[in-house]
């Protein structure tokens, strides 16, 4: 009897896994058409100094699936990395983000996330260079956000690529700082232009005393190394005030603004209301 129960359970588990796998394959199949059928959309989220002055936007990808509605990047970027589609998708995001930023009346920055797969395959340097020429965006206005995943694997190749991007004038930010295994050791390998403290630490600021201490430690370390810090996921004024007291330079999060179509932020990028109406 025990054996039968055990078998029953195993079979149930397998069925669930099969379903999950089938669903992933379906999504992966749909993703191939997403680019051609204009289902991908770039949202923009403001990044601000502590006084509220907006200094740039992060480009965040959205997939408007024909039957599922909006699919979140955490659900489809891993799939795109698995089958290599992220190369094309990543190039598309870069081009959209740079073209958009080049049209802004104010020379604000635009930040774009890069996948480790984009570093391993393809010719990232060439495609970024070409996109900058094509869109006319000044390289100094582009920031690329990488996670430590980029430096795992072919470390030397990734490092050289980062150096060449930096030589073009592009800024390099370390994203999700504090969540990986080796965030600290990567700080000595490359002169990052910005550190983004992961939002999990900010979310726990009030509830968990350890989080506040970790945020303080990251800020003190970054400042000793002369690297400015942006705090991700800032949702409350209490969090912002804490970060300001601790001399954090920049914030991003729902408190400043949610990721949205750029149309929602035209006033911030300097497009006058009259021009919007007449356009
Ligand atoms: P990320 O680069 O760390 O982006 C920040 C994430 O935090 C975004 O999630 C954003 O919507 C969310 N967020 C911002 N402010 C708040 C807040 O105040 N509260 C909360 N709870 N969340 C906040 P999103 O847009 O779902 O993106 C998730 C991740 O997907 C990104 O994390 C990034 O790693 C990846 N991603 C997004 N777009 C791209 C892309 O174009 N290329 C690549 N390779 N990865 C991307
Ligand atoms: Mg990011
Ligand atoms: Mg992040
Ligand atoms: Mg993330």
From TrEMBL:
EAL domain span: 24-273
Protein name: EAL domain-containing protein
Positions spanned in the full protein: 340 to 618 of 618
């Amino acid at each position: 009897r025990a054996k039968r129960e055990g078998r029953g359970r195993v079979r149930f588990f397998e069925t669930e896994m099969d379903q999950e796998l089938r669903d992933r394959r379906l999504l992966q199949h749909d993703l191939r058409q997403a680019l051609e059928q204009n289902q991908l959309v770039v949202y923009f989220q403001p990044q601000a100094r502590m006084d509220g002055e907006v200094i740039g936007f992060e480009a965040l990808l959205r997939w408007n699936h024909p039957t599922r509605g909006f699919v979140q990047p955490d659900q489809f970027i891993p799939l795109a990395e698995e089958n290599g589609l992220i190369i094309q998708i990543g190039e598309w995001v870069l081009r959209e983000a740079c073209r958009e930023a080049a049209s802004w009346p104010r020379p604000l920055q635009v930040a774009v996330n890069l996948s480790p797969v984009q570093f391993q395959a393809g010719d990232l340097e060439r495609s970024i260079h070409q996109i900058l020429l094509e869109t006319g965006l000044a390289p100094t206005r582009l920031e690329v956000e990488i996670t430590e995943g980029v430096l795992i694997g072919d470390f030397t190749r990734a490092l050289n690529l980062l150096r060449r991007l930096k030589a073009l004038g592009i800024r390099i930010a370390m994203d999700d700082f504090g969540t990986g295994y080796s965030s600290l050791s990567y700080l000595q390998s490359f002169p990052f232009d910005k550190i983004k403290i992961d939002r999990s630490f900010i979310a726990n600021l009030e509830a968990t005393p350890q989080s506040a201490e970790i945020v303080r430690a990251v800020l003190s370390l970054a400042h000793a190394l002369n690297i400015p810090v942006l705090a991700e996921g800032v949702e409350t004024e209490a969090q912002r005030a804490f970060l300001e007291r601790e001399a954090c330079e920049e914030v991003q999060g729902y408190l400043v603004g949610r990721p949205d179509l750029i149309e929602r932020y035209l006033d911030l990028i300097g497009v006058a209301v009259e021009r919007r109406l007449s356009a």
